[in-house]
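Q: What structure does this chain adopt?
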Amino acid sequence: MPPDVPAPAPPTRDRGKTLRAPVVLDLLAQELPDAVIALEFSDRWELLAATMLSAQSTDVKVNEVTRVLFRDLPGPEAVAAAPLERIEALIGSLGLFRQKAKNLQATARLLLERHGGEVPGTMAELTALPGVARKTANVVLANGFGRNEGVVVDTHVARLARRLRFTREQDPAKIERDLMRLFPRQRWLEVADLLIHHGRRTCLARSPRCEACVIEPLCPSSQEAGCTDKR
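A:
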């Protein structure tokens, strides 16, 4: 697991990324001023629940599901008391819905038992909840508490970080470590939001739209491989 505060970056032959990284982020920020979390929520419980449900599902689909879920079972109290079959029925259109229903209910019950029904605000407490790994905890802490404890690494962030040569790692924890070292803490949430939105709109997995990319001149993958790097 990456440290909460990364150690200084070790000497490296690729010092260019240190110079490119803030420029890339500034260009994306200008291009994507609406780059914020796409999940819909009105409080920390809804943020936690929606993020838990988002694994292997699109944000659009999760939002469709949670609009009904949060209406019919508002708050952790209602989720904790509901029959499991009821939760499964409400989220049944999502992937892995049975396991997600179990984790959601177990988390709701633990919040009531250990935290007075409130979502806790530390990495250790969040990752102790069923179905809550570091990525989910990072989302909740950054968007629900304003605390940058790490960088959210989803498939888009991982893909773009490698294409931009911000990392050469495959493991999400190691990718997160490299990004935490490369960017200042106050920009960690921005890093994730911008890379996710750029990955969805322009730097697509199979057919990146290099011709429409504002950071294409700064992208080693495009420059070195003529935009054929699909890794």
